[in-house]
Amino acid sequence: MKKLITIMLVALVPLITMAQKRSKKTTDNKTESKVNYEFMTIKGLVSIPLEYKKQIQKDISSSEMTMTDGIGSEATEHAQKIRYEFFRVTLDFGNQATKEEKNLSYKLSNSLHSMTDAVNMLANYGWDFVGSDIWSEDNTTYYHYYMIKK
């Protein structure tokens, strides 16, 4: 019996010590990937205040433009809406915005007149258009344009 236990212990010692050995970790196996993308959202809001809706209808009904002038009633209505609409745009760089991006946001948001202006101006700074979401509620239209910089 003693011989059997001794043989088992001798056979098990290498197995037990092998299970406890740790492999050496090298830094060569680690690969660090840095993200080279920056994302931004252009948020736009176009609204026609309720008090101007009646004025728009009044202007359209009193308009003397006819189809022979080359401008239809839809174009007249659209022109009147543009006259009274409120437009606001903000550039959202997230929490990681640099000082340069904050200055760009302030500079551009005060000089833009449409969402198209915003996309075109940011294209000059290296931003690419990715996609958009547009929805309307009552007399307000909301725009979210997504941009990426590589």
Please characterize this protein's 3D structure.
The chain is an alpha+beta fold and 150 residues long. It has one domain. Helix content is 43%, strand content 25%. The protein has helices spanning 2-20, 50-62, 73-84, 99-109, 115-124; strands at residues 38-47, 86-92, 128-137, 140-149. A four-stranded antiparallel β-sheet has the order 2-1-4-3. A hairpin with a 2-residue loop joins strand 3 (128-137) and strand 4. Helix 2 runs antiparallel to helix 3 (73-84). It is elongated.
Run of helices and strands: HEHHEHHEE
Reported for the largest beta sheet, the result is: 4 strands, antiparallel
User: CA-to-CA gap between the ends?
Assistant: 74 Å
Please compute the radius of gyration using only Cα atoms.
Answer: 33 Å
Strand order of the largest sheet: 2-1-4-3
Uncertain parts: none
Mean pLDDT: 76
What's the tally of helices? 5
Structural category is alpha+beta
Strand content: 15-25%
- Counting DSSP E segments of at least 2 residues, the number of strands comes to 4
- From the spread of the alpha carbons, the general shape counts as elongated
Helix content: 40-55%
Write down the domain tally: 1
